[in-house]
Structure prediction request, 122 residues.
Amino acid sequence: MAKTILIVDDSASVRQVVGITLRGAGYDVIEGSDGAVGLSKLTGQRVHLIISDVNMPNMDGISFVKAVKQLPAYKFTPVVMLTTESQEEKKREGQQAGAKAWIVKPFQPAQLLAAVEKLVLP
Prediction:
């Protein structure tokens, strides 16, 4: 059975590239256009990994991760931040919120898949 990954990014082109990369590797993909939409997609189904941008309208990635970690069904779901932000302070904020990895855009599909394979829940 394919594993499910939620992609949350306000850029449709980023969601598309990440989605193509993940689907090509055999994953099922759910997409959200910002943190609030991403949160609304978490309806109790099994999600093996979440990939989120940091800078988004309505609800940014750090707030989104904090909100996800409050949901019992997703408390242990690993989160990868995929963002243009590379400042240490932002990374620390992300880690404190519960992010397990930080990938800076532009990213290489192979780099993304390597992180996904390491972190995706069994």
User: Anything to note?
Assistant: The first helix runs from residue 12 to 24. Helices lie at 12-24, 35-41, 61-69, 88-97, 109-119. The beta strands are 4-8, 28-32, 49-52, 79-83, 101-104. The mean pLDDT is 97.
